[in-house]
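Schema walk-through. Below, the input block comes first and the output block second. Nothing else is stored per chain. Lengths vary across the set, and this one has 191 residues.
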Amino acid sequence: MSTKGSIHFNKDGTPTVGRSRLPAGTVLRAVLPMTHAQHAEFCAGVRRLIPSKPTWFNDVEIPARTPLHTFVVALPTMVANGDGVLRRTIRKTAVRVYEPLPGEPATLYEMGIPVVETGDTWHVNVGQKVPLNLERDNVTPAYLRDVRVAVLNAKGSLAEGGCRTHVGPRCARRRAGGGGCSEPGVGVAIR
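--- output ---
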């Protein structure tokens, strides 16, 4: 149910459209067949979300996270044309950098949804569609490099995969992918 109405899926899979509406927000209620192990994995995955608005799961609010840094950058993305065909383009988007919670691996996010673990120091949440590889299970190395360079340029340090706040020039170049880093970004990263 949402502000525009409701949809109920019958046992045969056919939808029934309702007139009930909410004054604000969306509520999703679902019964999904799964094992206890699948349920535990699903619940753990939901707790990793970084919602942009108050969000509840099983009547418990998913805690809001405060970004360490927010910036706007142009990154590759996918958009649908008038016929619904996806095409690559570059668009400006907000990127938010977060400290992972204890035990969480640093992850690249797409609009608050985890996409792929990166092995970096921070979670990086890209505010638009993230282009995936052909297998649709990862981003391309070029895209990850673009994101890392953007974080380095915006944050002034690139602390991932063994590179902490103060890194050497070889480590900064390796982590950023070799080029594209602004002079101030590399200067701060190699101090």
